[in-house]
Each structure stands twice: as C-alpha cells, then as structure tokens.
Amino acid sequence: MKSFPKVIKDLPEADIQFKGATGWIAQGKNHQIVFLEMKPLGGVPEHSHNSPQWGVVVEGKMELTIDNKTKIYKKGDEYFIPAHAKHSAKFLTKFRSIDFFREKMRYKPKVP
User: Fold this and answer.
1) What was the pLDDT predicted at 1?
2) Does residue 107 form part of some domain?
3) Domain at 32, CATH number
4) Handedness of CA 92, 93, 94, 100 (dihedral sign)
5) What parts of the chain have a pLDDT lower than 70?
6) Alpha helices (H) in 1-112, listed in sequence order
7) Rounded distance, CA 1 to CA 51, Å?
8) 89 with 64: CB under 8 angstroms?
9) Residue 40's Cα: distance from chain center in Å?
C-alpha cells in the first residue's frame, strides 16, 4: 500500500502548514490521532508542543532530532517526543506515519 486507504482519507483533513504535508484527523475528547503523508522535504524547523507526541512510521525514512539527538526512523520504528522537547525533522523519502498527540486541537480541520 502506497497511501492510506479511503477509510482514512474520508476523515477530516488537517490544516497543516508544512508544504508537501497531508494529514487526516481522528479526533478524540482530549487527543488527536493524525495519519500523516509527507513528500520528501528539506525539513520541518525546530519547534515544540505543550503535550507529548508518539508516532510509528508506516512507510519511508525520517531524520528526527529530539533535544539535539538525531536518529533515522524507518518503517516499523516508533518515536516519542516529550512535552516541551525541541524537535525537528527531515523527510528523506516519501513518508507516512500515525501520530498520537495528547492535545485536543494539535491540528485544526482544513476549511474547504
């Protein structure tokens, strides 16, 4: 499978401000799960969140730096970003992940 199935793409699309990024939101009462697809990009600049993030790579390779420690993540690898940890990413190939954010509105739904 080279893309998420229709059952995922029928979810609300996330308003993601990074070029080449598309995501679909499964909204919970106090969290979001985002099914993310990224084109190979120069990267996402360093930033942080007020809550933790956990993810698993579905396809591709990502260089992820968390608190100045860099590691390559590929299909099947999990990652955890603690609340307030500075992190950045480079997407080395087409990339898909499933990310859990412990905040209700990490991403807002895209307005058509």
Assistant:
1) 63
2) no
3) 2.60.120.10
4) negative
5) 1
6) 6-9
7) 31
8) yes
9) 14
